[in-house]
Specification:
mainly alpha; Four Helix Bundle (Hemerythrin (Met), subunit A); two-stranded antiparallel sheet; 8 helices
Length: 170
């Protein structure tokens, strides 16, 4: 059984897709004022998952390396194409899912160690950071879509009660 927090990550990923449904490549590559481009947002979220769950947790560095350039933490703003952004996001999330599928409450209390340095946050806290990071950028993407003139955007959170309701965990 997948841990309930992992189910929440999957629900939130689906909400990102729902939030960006109907965005064109041209729109995804625009930067409006100081807002990030939608293509960058997609790559940035994938980059965090790659960094946490592939590089730090498993020592794998050769998967979806374009994310280092398109959405890595601290890189200059850019505007990657939409199709390539989604392809990189899909590849990264598919690559990290086996690791997430194996997480237990006990494992989430552990701290990752990379190159002899122990992470200050537990795996569970890192998972929460990813979850909240998605929602931060989903809000930003909605604002960009509003500035682009999109109307009839999805409202609030989707079918949480059906797709990812609260479940107690040990």
């Amino acid at each position: 059984m997948v841990h309930p927090l992992v189910e929440q990550i999957r629900f939130t990923r689906a909400e990102l897709k729902r939030a960006l449904d109907g965005v064109t490549d041209e729109e995804a590559q625009q930067r409006l004022g100081s807002n990030n481009s939608i293509g960058w947002i997609i790559c940035h979220l994938a980059s965090q998952e790659r960094r946490y769950w592939l590089i730090r947790a498993q020592g794998t560095t050769d998967t979806v390396t374009e994310l280092d350039e398109w959405g890595g933490y601290g890189i200059p703003a850019n505007t990657p194409p939409l199709n390539e952004s989604w392809a990189a996001w899909e590849a990264a999330t598919a690559a990290v899912d086996p690791f997430l599928d194996e997480l237990t409450t006990e494992r989430m209390l552990e701290h990752l160690s990379t190159n002899g340095t122990t992470a200050p946050e537990s795996i569970g806290t890192m998972l929460l950071r990813v979850l909240y990071h998605y929602w931060f950028h989903i809000g930003e993407a909605y604002a960009v879509r509003q500035m682009l003139g999109h109307t009839d955007l999805p409202e609030f959170v989707g079918a949480l009660g059906k797709d990812a309701p609260f479940k107690p965990w040990q």
